[in-house]
Fold these 2 entries.
Entry 1:
Amino acid sequence: VAFKIGLLGLGTVGTGTAQILLTPTGRNPLLQEIKIHRVGVRSLDKLREVELPPEVLTNDMEAIATDPNIDIVVEVMGGLEPARSLILKAIAHGKHVVTANKAVIARYGAEIFTAAQEAGVYVLLEAAVGGGIPVIQPLKQSLGVNRIRSITGIVNGTTNYILTRMQSEGGEFSDILADAQKLGYAEADPTADVDGLDAADKIAILASLAFAGRIKLQDVYCEGIRHVSAADIAYAQKLGFAIKLLAIAKREETAIALESIDSELLQVRVQPTLVPQTHPLASINGVYNAILVEGDPIGQVMFFGPGAGSGPTASAVVSDILNIAAVLKTAGDTHQLHPLLSCAHQHYCRIAPMSELVTRFYARFLTKDRPGVIGSLGTCFGRHNVSLESVVQTGFRGDLAEIVVVTHDVREGNFRQALDEMRTLEAVESIPSILQVL
Ligand SMILES: NC(=O)c1ccc[n+]([C@@H]2O[C@H](COP(=O)([O-])OP(=O)(O)OC[C@H]3O[C@@H](n4cnc5c(N)ncnc54)[C@H](OP(=O)(O)O)[C@@H]3O)[C@@H](O)[C@H]2O)c1
């Protein structure tokens, strides 16, 4: 046996990983040369779905990170600590690392990749974004010669499941969340998913690969789906849109952005967004994920598939293990890192402030039912250079009139100023929702 694996974690992903490694028949023949040497878990008494010799299991995670017999440490335990420290320890001991942990990479990627470059080891993370969908390696390799313009993804299965059901059943967010928790599609603490934090981790990782620079997580604008209402989903549908939680990383192509030569200006954000029903991302439903990459000269490529789950995620984890094994097998004595597998960029990408963003908006108003209200909204938008694509008086909520507008492309700052002014109008009762339009 040529390559020894130390698994940190034997939960959903760890079990799937072990299952692939223990049944190599019919898969890539190189898998026969990869062996699970040790597996670290929290509880040694738990019943396990995979059969491993009892001496393989341990709860001494550090012993795995430092074991001189282990070539590749696979971190599938999750959480920030001790996962981060164990990854760094494994790197310091000259081990290659495979991880599925987007939270650790999005926060500590700079520290981890710097350490890996110095130690001359690989840190691969295909499973961290899009579960089983190959997207990290394609960005590094197959799409590597393109000038990427944008990445637009549905990268969180839980929120996509909830929004899909809100759309098909007409239910409110809180009811469908409760049901999703009962069915196991949402966690007991759904914060990371429904507030967009998990998607923010993932788009930070994708952006740093696509635009070859580091991204500070705090620069990623992040808005979740708690405030998306059944009413907005219904109006969106009437106007020809589906509402999706999109994670977007895009090269700014405005004049100011192009003036700066030293580094690119990007917008990176997570937001519930109205997606035209004809757009390929509008039909990605349920727990599925999809990532649309746009670049020059490729045009559009979309990756679609299972964004989570034991088997799919393990498929991505083991593909990383296989990649490392293949490179080590052919590298001979050269200790140079393969340039398409390692991560050498050092600088930070510049992120544009949200007020500079140019996009379309959807807004829903509740107003007093009297003549001239639509006119005064229109005048106010006009004063702030916001032109409207459509204005619909959709009906009544109690004795208030409900008005929905969709704008043409506007600068977010101008749009917000117009809304602030409208809030002071006597006829405007409230503006219950403001969403972006793709
Ligand atoms: N689940 C998915 O579909 C999916 C998809 C993509 C990425 N990921 C990522 O993959 C990672 C693992 O997720 P998962 O769903 O497989 O998690 P999980 O089912 O909760 O499994 C975690 C495993 O790690 C062990 N563990 C956790 N903390 C430990 C500690 N402090 N000391 C020792 N052992 C510890 C647990 O031991 P015990 O078994 O003894 O409790 C368990 O075996 C996470 O970073 C997650 O974000 C998951």
Entry 2:
Amino acid sequence: VNCEELVSLLSDYIDGRLEPGPQEAAEGHLAECDRCHLVLDSTQRTILLYRLSRDVALDPHRRLVLLRRLEEHCARRSGGDPVR
Ligand SMILES: [Zn+2]
């Protein structure tokens, strides 16, 4: 496969939905092509961040814990004196 073909396979590759043939072709190209390897890397990271932030948004309790922690962190930074 060439770079353009790889990009078109990329989302299925990340989701593990490729047939064994295209899967092997994609892996072969990724092993040889730095540029596509970088694209794969940053795409995977973006998807991961997106899923993480979505999970936090879907979980009110976890979001509350994170907010509380952020508030504590900010309070400590400003000398521990809460805003009145
Ligand atoms: Zn490539």
